[in-house]
């Protein structure tokens, strides 16, 4: 049975000897069902999490190859491919997450299954952190709303940080609220530290934006145990932040230099309204840079446009029922988490706002549940019909967009695998090195190192590549119509299956191919 948090309304089960606050009456059968669910407060969200795990494996094929960013993260711990250059904005949380599988197996299927199971567990734990703050059926609806977004299903089983930032943010806010309401709840205090640690290890900069409202609440509002809560939040944030700062001095020339490099990679941070870019990315573009694609159909945008309206209604409902803080705090954290991605960078990716969608899920679910369970209201039948139709349309749209995104992504990853196999036939086999256009993901598939002389992933000079080519098989990949660099102009030019451009192969690769025959 869920523990009821003192001082917070709408508990899963009312404390013995107290009179619950009046709320909207339910039909007798619905009331009995919800009463039984309240006794097993974790069951509805657990069922949602289980269905989410299965849905990931069914609609996002585990055999879908690794994407560009995924190859960078996985290569850091892989025993089958050299570590790719780790650019300034990245953090070490994802390599730690995939290490239990990637360190000993090159199977993408096994890795996807591992991540899907972890994603389902994370979904359950994040919404379970809100027990006593919202009833089980509201938490179940909220987790269902978040889990059925195409972005959530697409990125849950991927080796990417954004889903885990969302899980950490949602859990951290819930644990803070429970620990404030019940200073004796040690589980909540430990939950604050654990979820803050997850945030900081995945993306320290995102952790700062999420934590700002929490720190403001703890420092400005006096409650018992706030010093312990501040210490727990700081203890959780520090390990990931300190590791990121130490790595900045070791590999990037200092903390300021790393932050500057990270800002340059993101196109420079400053006032830049990217709301339209985010809307364009909702049609299934995993990266909208430059974001010159047309706007998706209105049906695709409808849920996104309705989200702030539903959140505002959730806030009004919370004020009416005198439970403002559990609704207001996630809304404020969602606003600060969205700020840099909506107003400070010049491009968009749908995964950037996953923490925002997770934090808005509970207030929105509260509105939907109230609309369909409020008895004695003349508008209730119309509200039930509208909610059912809206949810059915939501599921249809999300599945359609997800199917398109999976198809396009699978095709591009398959091309990289074909290109790597073709390079192997040309003699570019491990130990080897690739440079040029899309060299980082293709190098991972081929088991080679990636050496770049320009761009955000610069980690070598032309002279270093030339010297490497005297010792190892090396190939330079070019875009269609692009001339090779000066050091590779005498190398063999080849068309490579799966690649749109050309490959220029060093003589050492030809010798390796001859020896293999």
Description:
With 517 residues, the protein is mostly helical. It contains 20 helices and five strands. Strands 2-1-3-5-4 form a five-stranded mixed sheet, sandwiched between helices. β4 (492-495) and β5 (502-505) form a beta hairpin. The chain is globular and about 80 Å long.
Topology:
Elements: H1 28-39, H2 43-59, H3 68-75, H4 93-102, H5 108-128, H6 136-147, H7 150-155, H8 162-181, H9 186-202, H10 204-220, H11 226-251, H12 255-265, H13 275-281, H14 298-320, H15 324-343, H16 354-373, H17 380-425, E1 433-436, H18 439-446, E2 449-450, H19 462-469, E3 474-478, E4 492-495, E5 502-505, H20 507-516
Parallel strand pairs: 1-2, 1-3
Antiparallel strand pairs: 3-5, 4-5
Helix pairs in contact: 2-5, 2-6, 3-18, 4-5, 5-6, 5-8, 6-16, 8-9, 8-10, 8-15, 8-16, 9-10, 9-11, 10-11, 10-15, 11-12, 14-15, 14-16, 15-16, 16-17, 17-18
The averaged pLDDT comes out at 89
Structural class: mainly alpha
Strand segment tally: 5
How far apart lie the N and C ends?
68 Å
**Gyration radius over CA:** 25 Å
Shape: globular
Poorly predicted segments:
1-40
Largest sheet: 5 strands, mixed
Name the helix and strand elements from N-terminus to C-terminus, one letter apiece: HHHHHHHHHHHHHHHHHEHEHEEEH
User: What spatial order of strands do you see in the largest sheet?
Assistant: 2-1-3-5-4
Strand content: under 5%
Number of helices: 20
Question: Which key features would you list for this structure?
Answer:
4% strand, mainly alpha, five-stranded mixed beta sheet, 517 residues
